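Hello,

Our lab assistant flagged a job as stuck in the queue for most of the afternoon. It eventually completed. Since we weren't sure the result was trustworthy after the delay, we are filing this so someone can double-check. Below is the sequence as submitted and the structure that was eventually returned. Let us know if re-running is recommended.
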Amino acid sequence: MTLDLTVAIPTYNGAIRLPEVLERLRVQTGIESIRWEIIVIDNNSTDNTAKVVSEYQANWNEAYPLRYCLEAEQGAAYARKRAVKEAQGTLIGFLDDDNIPALNWVAAAYAFAQTHPNAGAYGSQIHGDFEVSPPDELSPILPFLAIAERGSEPFIYEPQKKLLPSSAGLVLQKQAYLESVPSQLILSGRVEGNMLTGEDLEMLCYVQLKGWEIWYNPAMEIDHKIPHWRLQREYLIPFMQGIGLSRFVTRMLSVKPGQRPLAFVVYTVNDVIKIILHWVRYRGKIKSELVAACQMELFLSSLRSPFYLWRNGYFNFQNQLINLSFHPFGNSQKCL
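-- returned structure --
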């Protein structure tokens, strides 16, 4: 059966966080004429995530179903791929397990698609719900924490501006994903011991390259719960490093294959210039000032990105940066 919308919640060890998301989805407003469902994609959790969802299912009396899927392949990209495979909705709205949607989020997500049929994806307005108020000096790097307060009017993300929404609160047309995104992405997302990220941007680059529009929809609002430890140096420096190390993938996707050698040189020179200017500006303060340290780590890691990815086997140019191959979804366990 085809539905209007699937809300997919990829989670890893989300037993404590999931109930608040599910309770908010349980009381959504303006959904009377929308046919929708919820799927929790358990990305190989080691806590009681499966038990929490099972207990909810046992007492779930809503008109829209609550389903559970186990995706054993670790990484956010694999969880989203599984969500697309299992979704019965023509639209797929992604919520992380720390995203609390507004009461009208589902209705706003569905309504936007009715007036923007060429939108292959559109992102939410995301507010930071901080456990501890961040100091003002961290403002330049807060957008990296999936906060998107980009005004009260919708706008299209133009390819030349190199800006795309995050996967938190993202809505995809399922058809846009199926006809745009290759079966194997280079980036899989952060896993334990590896902060490499950017898998959501890689996915959206493919959707955009296929000619689909990507939008910002401020009517879809979510609160992103951010614990205190995500504002600390021990988290932020590796986090910025992961962003930088993944950048070569998304940079090259927007460049025609024949122009990639030149683009590689241009990006390398540009990164070197940024590093030099940053060092001159913050000389003697890079280690002591957290924002300056984060920005330097981002610039250095962006410079290292192509070498890191190649050395660690994330891609080879011929198969993954030039030729795009599409294959059916593989076998996986049945959802409950």
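-- support follow-up --
The delay was a queue issue, not a problem with the job. The result is valid. The domain at 3-232 is CATH 3.90.550.10 (Spore Coat Polysaccharide Biosynthesis Protein SpsA; Chain A). DSSP finds ten helices and nine strands in the chain.
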